[in-house]
Amino acid sequence: MALFDDREQAFEKKYANDQQTRFRIEARTAKLLGLWAAALMGMSGDVAENYAKDVVGANLDEPGFDDVKRKVRHDLKGRDVAFDENEFDQKLVEFLAEAEHQIITQG
Hints:
There is one protein chain. By secondary structure, the chain is an all-alpha fold. The protein has one domain (2-106): Orthogonal Bundle (Major Prion Protein). Helices cover 82% and strands 0% of the residues. It has 4 helices and no strands. It has helices at 2-40, 45-58, 66-78, 85-106. α1 (2-40) packs across α2 (45-58). The model has no long low-confidence stretch (mean pLDDT 88).
């Protein structure tokens, strides 16, 4: 019975670790997208970093990136920044891959 309990605890620990890693990857993706959008809006330095933090915060509204996409699109449109929807989606995919690489390799 102890072997079963140990195995169950190991699975639970792995699941919790996987969830934490997934959360960190999503947060990093949102930050990268926020920094990209900030640059498009002419922000830099602390202003860009703070905007990226706001984008990360928007990712807590619902699962996935729809909340982040809505915020960034709204902000870009509010500043009359032209952007291509396809490029926007491509950037999100690119930043997701980059974030995953960063989190996995850097810990």
